[in-house]
Design a protein that fits this description.
Blueprint: H1 3-7, E1 12-16, E2 32-38, H2 47-56, E3 66-71, H3 77-96, H4 109-129
Antiparallel strand pairs: 1-2, 2-3
Length: about 140
């Protein structure tokens, strides 16, 4: 069983009225899904994982430390619920994935030599433009 499956009991899923056009039907049915996950109060996540989530997806988290995901693409409540859970899974997988450290590289000997020869030739062109000094 994956670690994300362990988080499902901690999810709060609420159905609310969807926005947008729809006539009389839209005023009676709660099809929009609002998925809430309390990151700070999670028993499954380690403190390090909580910190990673708080830093990497801070724009999606409320001041209370609750991640809110909404889905209202479909007219079906079940489809919206599945879409919200899928979005939650993808967001957490992406945020908890360890980032690779960048390896610093040095310029090759050939590129350094090429740069130096270009500088020397440019310097020679500029020296030729100078006025000759009068020497007695």
């Amino acid at each position: 069983m994956s670690r994300l499956m362990l988080l499902y009991p901690e999810l709060q899923i609420c159905a609310v009225r969807s926005s947008g056009p729809g006539g009389q039907h839209v005023n009676k049915v709660n099809t929009k899904i609002e998925l809430r996950f309390d990151i700070t109060g999670s028993a499954v996540l380690t403190p390090k994982e909580k910190e990673m989530l708080m830093n990497r997806i801070k724009t999606r988290i409320s001041e209370a430390g609750i991640l809110i995901i909404t889905s209202q693409q479909s007219r079906s409540q079940l489809t919206n619920k599945e879409a919200a859970i899928k979005q939650f899974d993808e967001l957490l997988k992406k945020a908890l994935k360890p980032r690779k450290k960048r390896k610093s590289t040095k310029p090759t000997k050939q590129s350094v030599e090429k740069r130096k020869t270009a500088k020397r030739s440019r310097s020679a062109v500029k020296q030729q433009r100078r006025k000759p000094w009068l020497t007695d």
